[in-house]
Amino acid sequence: MTYTAPTRPRRLRRLFTPWVLVAPAALWLLVFNVWPSINTIVLAFTNAKPLGGGHFTGLDNFARVLSDGQLADALLNSIVFMLVCLPLLTILPLLLAILVEKKIPGIAFFRTAFYTPVVASAVVVALIWSWVLSDRGLVNGFAQWLGIIAEPVPFLTERWLLVFSAISLTVWKGLGYYMIIYLSALGNVRRELHEAAAVDGAGPIRRFWNVTVPGVRNTMLLVSVMVAVSALRVFSELFVLSNGTGGPGGRAQSVVMLIQMYSRGFYGHFGYASALSIVLLVITIGPMLLLLRLNRKAA
Q1: Rounded to the nearest 5°, which phi and psi values hold at 52?
Q2: Distance in angstroms (rounded) separating the CA atoms of residues 208 and 246
């Protein structure tokens, strides 16, 4: 049997066919990811506006960041948002996944109920919560009817109450999403380990810490990173609950809301908004590196 070398057209097809197949995805990536990222870095060093390209201003935008009082408030709000959401959305979905993993009658209904908020629109859910938490909303009305409070609680008009109302919305909406991630991870934890621990006299809590948690440690790290990044980039919840104002004096807005405020309208400051975006990127990388380091030490 003799070997026949491929002809030149066949060699060319073998060479270019993979590139043709990945070309649409590569083009999409370049147009909607790589180019906007490069353009943001360039704009951060200019005073660009929507109606003009602007000119190079060096580090002026970054110097302005250091003295921006609004940014200090927005950054504090975003960090508090992350610090509260991180433990809640790392531990509670795991406990929820352990609960709904059990094969008992009617558990499918609860799985669906817990996951329903995930598929609902974030804006629609936030609008419902704004109605529930308003001065004349369901919570205040019911509490006043019971005589628990005399005056409405300013859930949406006081800075920290607004921030924590948005946090409660985020936790409620994210529980089902991270529960599904944990459910897939729990399927990889060997039943023999639980059975052996039970034979040794370990109770449910001890088996949770010594068997379940080590078995899903990598998934917990993934969830922690996802929660931290999402919390630092929060927008919809605070924007809708505050009706786009960022609360009293704009002090309850997030960093993303601040970026949106500076970049909108005919007189927006694209240059400064781009500088804020880069600052937010650097801040977001911090928790990711910290969580990776902690996981490496624990391993």
Answers
A1: -160, 150
A2: 41
